[in-house]
Write a structure and sequence with these properties.
It contains 7 helices and 6 strands. By secondary structure, it is of the alpha+beta class. It has a 6-stranded mixed sheet with strand order 1-2-6-5-4-3, sandwiched between helices. β4 and β5 form a beta hairpin. The chain is globular, with a radius of gyration of 21 Å. The relative contact order is 0.10. The model has no long low-confidence stretch (mean pLDDT 77).
Length: 238
């Protein structure tokens, strides 16, 4: 199973980078080829919630939970409002006592993603998370079946993108690794190679945090992941 994402780079015969959307499409195709028998649910931001990308996912039998914001998908919000006025929208609520928040979910089936492609349809989910005098709003589009039985789990799947972003990308960017956006693959793909090595190092680090009792004990004693990383870096410098 491939562990690495598809890097952003130019098409053959061009100098301009193709962008994140094309990289995501290449990743979907590669993921289906290896291994072909597994099923996956992909989550992404609202930039990926467009008909061509969703069609690629469907072609390769990959399910998705994609962000659907009002600013990026104005044509999606209008059918949802019409469905709500027609009584075709379902609500559900759940109190997460452990987290101290109340989740209120709304879902509607078979809504169009944009005005130009009527065949590009999905199930819309919206969630309001209330707690500590603050309300957060999230929304997604998915091809997965949605009902009162599943909607809370679907919402948790959509929120997993935030967890991935925080624990992976922001960790690499803000906790000493300095992996931020770059402006190309680099000379002889040097930037891509360095990024892949950094992701491999993160994989090893996360595996140790999950499985190594000694590292967990040291982390608990120091009380800070940043301090733990600095102490380990100091041993390497010595």
């Amino acid at each position: 199973m491939p562990l690495m994402p598809a890097p952003i780079g130019p098409h053959d015969g061009t100098d301009k980078n193709a962008g994140a959307r094309h990289a995501a499409t290449r990743f979907v195709v590669t993921r289906r080829q290896d291994p072909p028998h597994r099923t996956f649910i992909g989550t992404a931001d609202s930039l990926r919630a467009n008909a061509p990308h969703i069609a690629t996912r469907h072609h390769h039998a990959l399910h998705s939970m994609l962000g659907g914001t009002e600013g990026d998908h104005a044509c999606l919000c209008q059918p949802v409002q019409a469905a709500e006025h027609a009584g075709r929208v379902t609500y559900d609520a759940r109190h997460d006592r452990a987290a101290g928040v109340v989740h209120r979910c709304r879902f509607v089936h078979e809504v169009p993603l944009n005005a130009s492609n009527g065949d590009g349809r999905g199930n819309g989910i919206a969630s309001w998370e209330s707690g500590d005098a603050k309300v957060q709003h999230f929304s997604w589009v998915t091809d997965l079946r949605v009902s009162k039985r599943h909607v809370f789990h679907r919402m948790r799947g959509g929120r997993a993108r935030w967890k991935i972003d925080t624990e992976t990308f922001k960790t690499l960017k803000n906790q000493g690794d300095n992996v931020a956006h770059n402006y190309g693959p680099g000379e002889q793909h040097l930037s891509v190679v360095c990024a892949m090595l950094m992701l491999l190092a993160l994989l090893v680090d996360q595996t140790q945090q999950l499985c190594c009792a000694l590292l967990q004990a040291v982390w608990a004693k120091l009380g800070s992941q940043r301090l733990l990383g600095e102490r380990m870096r100091a041993w390497l410098y010595a």
